[in-house]
Amino acid sequence: MADQSLGKRFRVFAWNTCEEQHFEDFIIGECVGAVGQHAGAHSGAVSLRSCAAREIDPGICVGHDGISLYIGRVPQDLPSPTPEYLSRLNPEQRRAIETTEGPLLILAGAGTGKTRVLTTRFAHILLTGRAYPSQILAVTFTNKAAREMRERVSAILGEPAEGLWLGTFHSICARMLRRHAEYVGLTSSFNILDTDDQIRLLKQVMEPWKIDTKRWPPNQLMGIIQRWKDRGLTPDRVTPAEDSDFANGHALAIYRAYQERLIALNTCDFGDLMLHMTEILRNQPNVLAQYHRIFRYILVDEYQDTNTVQYLWLRLLAKREHGPSNIACVGDDDQSIYSWRGAEVENILRFEKDFPGAEVVRLERNYRSTAQILAAAAGLIAHNEGRLGKTLRPGRDDAQGEKVQIIGVRDSDEEARIVSGAIERLRGDGHPLSEIAILMRAGFQTRPFEERLMMIGIPYRVVGGLRFYERSEIRDCLAYLRVLSQPADDLAFERIINVPKRGVGAVAVQKLHAQARALPGPLTAAVMWQLQEGLLKGKSKDALDGLMAAFQRAKATLETEGHVVAAEQLLEDSGYLQMWRDDRSVEAPGRLDNIRELLRALGEFGTLQGFLEHVALVMDTESETSDDKVSLMTLHGAKGLEFDTVFLPGWEEGVFPSQRSLDEGGNRALEEERRLAYVGLTRARRRAIVLHAASRRIYANWQSSMPSRFIEEIPSEYVQLTGQAFETRRQAAAAPSMFASGPLTSTRPPSFRAPRPKIHDVKPAPTVAIGTTVFHHRFGEGTVIGADGPQLHINFENGGVKRVMSNFVEIRS
Prior knowledge:
Elements: E1 9-14, E2 22-27, E3 54-55, E4 60-64, E5 69-73, H1 84-87, H2 91-98, E6 104-108, H3 114-127, E7 136-140, H4 143-157, E8 165-168, H5 169-180, E9 191-192, H6 195-206, H7 218-230, H8 251-264, E10 267-268, H9 270-283, H10 285-294, E11 297-300, H11 308-318, E12 327-331, H12 346-349, H13 351-354, E13 359-363, E14 365-366, H14 371-381, E15 393-394, E16 404-409, H15 412-428, E17 436-440, H16 446-455, E18 460-462, H17 472-485, H18 490-496, H19 506-518, H20 523-533, H21 538-560, H22 563-573, H23 576-582, H24 588-602, H25 608-619, E19 630-634, H26 635-638, E20 643-648, H27 659-681, E21 684-693, E22 695-698, E23 701-704, H28 709-713, E24 719-722, H29 729-732, E25 773-776, E26 780-788, E27 791-796, E28 800-805, E29 810-811
Parallel strand pairs: 6-12, 6-13, 7-8, 7-11, 9-10, 11-12, 14-15, 16-21, 16-24, 17-19, 17-20, 18-19, 20-21
Antiparallel strand pairs: 1-2, 3-4, 4-5, 22-23, 25-26, 25-29, 26-27, 27-28
Helix pairs in contact: 2-3, 3-4, 5-9, 6-8, 9-11, 14-27, 15-16, 17-18, 19-20, 20-21, 21-22
């Protein structure tokens, strides 16, 4: 019996041709066979290499084995075999992949296989013939994520995936904008400015307004402009409520002039890529309709991190007048932690309102962490009201694990000793250092851990940033302190002579060097001589006069009130601290925190010279070339990563949650801080250790702190407390705030009651007798020849005489 479809024309999707992906026509021939049978590889079937499997009409099956095309009718009662790429998925993951039509929100909790689901869904759409590659738009936040998606899709398909609209938001918009640049006054060859060029151009644009750039820094205005762009606001869309009082209300006018100048130069900045393309889609229905025809499916990664303009752009592309909105967004509202760079958690929370009838699939099987860690994290995040709700559960059979350990310590130094000691024991037990991380709320917290790890010889890396003493603001401050200690330090003085800007350029510095050689003397002497002789004029004269006066006052304070007060006074009088207070970049508060931490470290030493020598020794430590290192990073930088063991120090009120964030954002900020704590806990596969200090030194001032509210919010059944007599937040409410002002003192608060933790026998700095043999990780063995409080004078066999804190050596005899 001949097939009733003989001679019927149909279309097959060919996706590995050398040209643009397309559909090809074929005719069913006599070779197909009788109804209910499949054409075999050698039955005369039409040959087409690597044709995508696709269902043509009801009952007509098209498939391939990589060699030949098979055409024939499938019996209605014959079940379809499960493709291998779907067979290893859990039911929720498979549902998220096979639900291809209509809007879909995939709530993917930490460690639930988000990337696998997203890439498999992409490949599934291709392999089932629902679209060809150029009909799928897939957007990510990083180039790394885009590369990983491309590689995984290619692995499932069995060959390179070409012709894809796959990339970051900005790279996709740049590609689109080059096709439609004329709608915003550009040509397709427009240039994209980097950050430095943006600031240079903005300075030029600001000139007609005669704005004092010291009071109103251009980078501050650039931050305002970029925030407007992130919210999808062109100059015409900025309302009075959105306007800024920058430069006495000139911000909007300068923004308009800046945009006009960009267009005149046939350039755009990074924020324009999305802003221009969103405006084109808003105002050009023909362009929007074109992309509606092109993109049959839209895939979005990390939807909880989208800002307003990204949200608007996606909604324009996804919402159609006719046909379904085939947009699938993968995200986790419990991991939305980037509001400071414009992310709006509300975008994911209102997905079902934006796309009525949307399906929501929750991925709750976690394949990373133990049951105890997951339950602790779930109990913590349940205190947030603004969430869609899901509960992670372990996806592994061996996932019971240890409880979350909470350790109370005296202060940040003991915190660092306990963590480094625990890491040393883990390494001794065979645990790779690369599977250990110390995750902190802020970058300034790395210093004591860095110093302690260096002291005991454990290699580490600071992920996403520089080591503490390598940070530019720390190097600046150290240069100020070096000049205060030794005015003849020309290298240090040359670093800070124009920081903050004092109108002293390279030519002026060369003249000072020449004057110094003529005296002869250091640069500081040359400056004083030129000031006395009246050789300096204008702003540079006033600025350098003020700088030298600041050093003279600090020198006097050094002898009367000590090195900590003198250092703070010098940084204040020189204008250095004010420079960072005036800076409105997102990095500025962190830089000020780092400077405060430097002053805190200074307070641990008896003299300024002793501190500077200690820093020199620390900075001289050789870098470890091995990849097996402990990772130090902020909680923001840890998102997406995982480790066997995670230490979470600094869980105290004011530190975490951050007091600055709470002051600026209220309850909304508190919920984001809690999400950040949730992210921290869920980075751990096997062990999560939370630490909090009973007191911290702010400069030279010991101030009480109380445990973070997040500690109390973790269900007690999933927690192991180390130590006793932990103060609750209510009991500690009457204690002085760690941010309270008060006289400098070297004594601890009398209310301190927290005992030493049991798991680690932490000894105080030892009293070391002269003649004792000691060992230092870098300098080897040496003999103590003197002492100045906790600072030892040691004659090392291979390094000569050094001054080293007693906690940084091991006693040998």
